[in-house]
User: Which sequence fits this backbone?
């Protein structure tokens, strides 16, 4: 059974992978045997991340990819496919957040966020799926968020994009399933990464997450790894179109003392 989780011989393209959840995913997939292409808008950072993985005896390479650059997506996918003759796993991880009252948010800000957090995933899936289909195996994994399942004041743009990711994930499952490609999303709760640096400075909010979370803590980035290996591997062969929520139980219950309301 354990061999179903083995990724030896697989090639994975991960976006926004030079730090945070993308880097944790790259390390987890590489530890399971995959060759990982660590892409990011920040090339020196992705080169440093790939070099560290190589130092640790893992298989990795770095590449520049701004996920809003449509021609750049096409040429990178063609380049990887030409050199490796396969792309088995696509992790659409790159993302940004905008914490701003709705009334102060401009259309340009909303469009920019949608391009980075949602449109990019459609473009990457469209570019990679034909390469996956050639080998009859594909795993598309999209980063949503608990904000893809619930609403939140001050984050309407991010919430809208992440709800879009959930819908896109289901449609990719329907469209590419017949070619042996699965599409699933993960919806993290609160993890320690750069994206949350600003809110980590707010002790009241930090503690409020803990008190609302049944597991009573935030998560480390590498705690995403096991789920990503599962979704990338044969072990998840019949799972598609789903969103797995990793939030320590935060969104399955009502905060407050037991049974008082
Ligand atoms: N950290 C959390 O608690 C959390 C919770 C829910 C969802 N997520 C999602 O997980 C993903 C990763 O988040 P993170 O916390 O690791 O964030 P992060 O800010 O630490 O890392 C994001 C990465 O994406 C890259 N990036 C940004 N814009 C890009 C672009 N246009 N092209 C290519 N790369 C780009 C950045 O350079 C960075 O390496 C995001 O999609 C985010 O929405 C994170």
Assistant:
């Amino acid at each position: 059974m354990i061999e179903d989780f083995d990724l030896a011989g697989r090639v994975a393209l991960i976006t926004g992978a030079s730090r945070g959840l993308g880097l944790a995913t790259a390390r987890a997939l590489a530890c399971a045997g995959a060759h990982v292409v660590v892409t990011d808008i920040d090339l020196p950072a992705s080169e440093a991340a790939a070099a560290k993985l190589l130092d640790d005896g893992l298989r990795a390479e770095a590449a520049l990819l701004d996920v809003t650059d449509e021609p750049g997506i096409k040429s990178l996918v063609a380049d990887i496919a030409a050199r490796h003759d396969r792309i088995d796993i696509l992790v659409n991880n790159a993302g940004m957040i905008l914490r701003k009252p709705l009334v102060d948010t401009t259309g340009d800000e909303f469009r920019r966020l949608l391009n980075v957090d949602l449109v990019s995933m459609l473009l990457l899936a469209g570019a990679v799926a034909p390469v996956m289909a050639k080998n009859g195996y594909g795993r598309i994994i999209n980063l949503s968020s608990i904000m893809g399942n619930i609403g939140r004041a001050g984050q309407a743009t991010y919430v809208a994009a992440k709800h879009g990711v959930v819908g896109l994930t289901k449609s990719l499952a329907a469209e590419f399933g017949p070619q042996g490609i699965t599409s699933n999303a993960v919806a993290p709760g609160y993890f320690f990464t750069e994206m949350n640096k600003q809110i980590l400075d707010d002790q009241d909010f930090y503690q409020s997450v803990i008190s609302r979370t049944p597991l009573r803590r935030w998560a480390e980035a590498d705690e995403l790894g096991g789920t990503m290996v599962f979704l990338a591997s044969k072990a998840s062969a019949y799972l598609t179109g789903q969103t797995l929520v990793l939030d320590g139980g935060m969104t399955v219950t009502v905060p407050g003392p037991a049974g008082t309301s």
Remarks:
- The longest strand covers residues 181-188.
- The helical segments are 20-31, 43-55, 70-84, 107-135, 156-176, 197-200, 203-212, 225-232.
